[in-house]
Amino acid sequence: MSSPLPYTSESDALEQAAAHERNGDFDAALKIYLTLAQNDPEAIDSKYRAGTALMRRGDLEDAVTLLRQVVFAAPDHLPARTNLGNALLLLGQSEPARDAFVAVLDLDPGNRNALFGLATILIRLGDPGRALPLTARLLQVLPDSAAALTLDADARAPHGDTAGAIAQYRHALRVDPQYLPALKGLADTLYHQNRLQEAESYARRAIERQKDDPELLALLGAILMAREDWPAAVEALGAAFDRDSNNPAPLVQMSLACRRSGDLAGAIHHAQRAWTLAPMDKTAGNALGAALAAAGEAKGAREVLMAGGDRSKLPAHLWSGLGALQARLLEDEAKAREEALQATAAATFEADDAAPEYRAPEQGDQDIPAAEPVQAEEDGRRQTPWETTGEPETLPLFPED
């Protein structure tokens, strides 16, 4: 049953809906569009506008339903085909989205939305070579677009043109210094080029823009691991996991960072958490095996390896005993730190005790010859005795012949 509209005509209703959109009241506009579409199932324009409004609001599946109806009724309706492709792309349905964009480009080879969407899909599908001609066409239309420049760089990097990708990312950031995809892409590309200091700088700039992005935090963690800054890497990776607690990868990397820094209890702990989260994840099992081997638990490491990444094949006693092992390792580490502190204190005391006692010179003492200049190692130059003892040397007023 159709709903009545409080407007004198359809054109009046569309005009009012457009006014709502200009004012940012998309819900009010959507209500009008949906009512028009229900009143007249063949109202193509109203269905298109309703589908587009739904997509903007994030109701992607409902948007796809309406936009498909428009495309079925009017195959040459390019805006509907383009938005259908966009909605499908946002839903992660790459194949049907690609088909929608191809259909648009067959009718309009210069359509910017379709060029951008199809290139994005090809990059995601691992075919950057086919994306490059599309990004080149897009840049002919939008030569100074940060989004188009970044997309071109995204295609160049996996295709092997690293220098070109870096140049395009930098160009995009000159256009828009805060453009997040360019910051992220440049940081990732520099990381893979082992230009770690630059990569960290751009990653941190990106995180300032989007603090809760787990991919950015994981990238920063990977960069810090490559720089062997283990505590900072663990912190970044822990933040990545906190924001995506269904992904065991940051935990695996945290285990590796702890193991390389000598924190074997932490290495076991994080690997155990990763394998708990993903019991069939071989990388998590390997991380636990490596941590056990580093802790001297060769038998446990072999049993983990024999499980082949399937935690259910691990002996129950080994899994249940990991907590006690971590506690023992923590005690051993604390004991080692205490012994090191005691050894340092003892060495300092012995050095002080061995120093000769100072005695003021007495009458009758023989003159003590002046010390010879000594060679200094600190800065590569020769030091005079007053520089090493703190006492000034008596210098002649004029050089001797």
TrEMBL record:
Keywords: Repeat, TPR repeat. TPR repeats lie at residues 44-77, 78-111. InterPro entries: CellSynth/LPSAsmb/PSIAsmb, TPR-like_helical_dom_sf, TPR_rpt. SUPFAM superfamilies: TPR-like (SSF48452). The keyword RNA-binding does not apply. Residues 347-401 are annotated as: Disordered. This is Tetratricopeptide repeat protein. It comes from Stappia taiwanensis.
